[in-house]
Amino acid sequence: MNQTEKFWGLIILIIVILGYVIPYTFLSDVTKWYGSFLIWSILALITIVANYFLTTDWSDEE
Amino acid sequence: MSTTLVWSTIAIYVVIAIVIAYLSRNGRQNSMSGYFLGERKLNGFVSALSYSATTYSAFMLVGLAGLTYNGGVGALGFEIIYFMGVSLVAIFGPRFWLVGKKYGYVTPSEMLGDRYQNKWVAVVAAVASSLFLIPYSAVQLTGIGYLLQGVTNDAIPYTTGVIIATVLALVFSYIAGIRSVAWTDSLQSLIMIITSTIVVILIVNSLGGVSGFFASIEANDPQALAVPGNGFFNFWTFLGLTIPWFFFSISNPQVSQRLFMPASLKSLRHMLLGFLVFGLIYTVVSVVWGFSASILFPGLENADLATPMLLSSDVVPPILGVIVMVGIMAAAISTIDSILLTLSSLFSRDVYRNVKGEANDRKQLMIGKIVIPIIAVLAFLFAQLELDLIAVLSVASSAGLIVVVPAIIGTFFWKRGTAPGVIVSVTISSILVIYIEATGGLLLGLKSGIWGIIVATFLFIVVSITTQPPEQKANEFIDYVKGRMKNKK
């Protein structure tokens, strides 16, 4: 894996782990929209951003 | 919902889809890569929409809405973890694409067979995929049968729905192979995302806007906004459900085969990013849908009825409701036709060619085309049985397909991986997953998918270390990928 892949891959791995840990620990008692609903939505958006940067230099060579 | 309206909308959809499928017939369809991969020339836009349609079956708007209805926000988390797993395409996508072009692979199992230098690797991977995917297509057919039966109050019988779906999947697969499937998928994706989003806006508005929507949930069932909530999504269930789906993008051959198809890495990138944007909208739509049904129709005995209830309610205009209903049907069909094509290519390329010995490209294609209706009939028969077994096998399918993941990772990142390692890990873990699913779905408190990935990884590593790797091929293959990936930077 190259450096870009390692960096953004690690970010995504952290996002995935947070996707398990935060809702089941800190947010398990929060019965509001700004609890798990919000955190999973934000993590999904960060995933899109990470994928955007991870793939910026994919060329159009066929 | 009026039966005439349902029939008329289905008829319009069929006519438009067949015209689009027919128009997609440019390029050669008389070769394996032409018919099954669209000559590896799909552009990013079509790839993204088609990838979305293939991945998002009726499961989303019926199943995920039902899961939300039953278990609350945990359903969103479940789908978002899957969504994060699609990032694996960013790592594995360019690698599949590069070796697909260099070595001419048509199927993912063919790639495994060549990389590990053993035809039985391809055969075993192909058979395992077929074993888990045929019931999965049957479940899609079942879904259409129940949906049409449900919204028309039995005016369209279950079997009629199943027959319509089977015939349409066959027709789309036949007209121009993957090209017609990709283009009809694109049409379906666009219609679905637009109409289902409009439905959500209408429903949320009827509940007093976004703040009214959340206020209703908090008043109605506050636990639905947290996990484990009512206990439906306890942590171990959540983990067991999400692990197989996290690897879905590389474990399911009808999806990973698409990594061979884009015209360039840029098209692959557009496919990935387009899918992620589409997927997030679709996920939020399905979850809001489920929450809304829990507010509007509490106490449903069968949560899968949440969607038919919403679509036939006063909140949604009948014409919009029927379009979305046909859209859900089209979503299921687009999943089946992609699976039909993938399975027939697996059979002709990986099983028939390897077992038979001499079989040129033309012969393989002919066999593939013969096999398509046979697989469709098998799926149809499975659906007709209406057995619990189908449900068992469909849950097992995502868990079962995960067993090939260690071998795929090893293909690109572990030179020491061997053919016996793949064969033993895939075979034993598949049997273990089926055993666990057939005996209640849990072993020592853990779901089959968790066992599948742990046991497959363990066996792949241990057996590989004790056997001889195909050094020359492993070096050439992995060094090629490494070199090309470095040059991109």
Automatic annotation (TrEMBL), chain A:
Domain of life: Bacteria
UniProt keywords, alphabetically: Membrane, Transmembrane, Transmembrane helix
Keyword Transmembrane helix tagged: yes
Transmembrane feature ranges: 7-27, 33-54
Protein name: DUF3311 domain-containing protein
Automatic annotation (TrEMBL), chain B:
Record keywords, A-Z: Cell membrane, Ion transport, Membrane, Sodium, Sodium transport, Symport, Transmembrane, Transmembrane helix, Transport
Membrane topology listed for this record: Multi-pass membrane protein
GO biological process: sodium ion transport
Gene3D superfamilies (alphabetical): Sodium/glucose cotransporter
Transmembrane intervals: 6-24, 45-68, 80-99, 120-138, 158-178, 190-213, 233-251, 272-299, 319-344, 365-383, 389-414, 421-444, 450-467
Cellular component, GO annotation: plasma membrane
Localization, UniProt: Cell membrane
Molecular function terms from GO: symporter activity
UniProt-listed PANTHER family: SODIUM/PROLINE SYMPORTER-RELATED, SODIUM_PROLINE SYMPORTER
Family the entry assigns: Belongs to the sodium:solute symporter (SSF) (TC 2.A.21) family.
Entry protein name: Sodium:solute symporter family protein
Lineage, highest ranks first: Bacteria, Bacillati, Bacillota, Bacilli, Bacillales
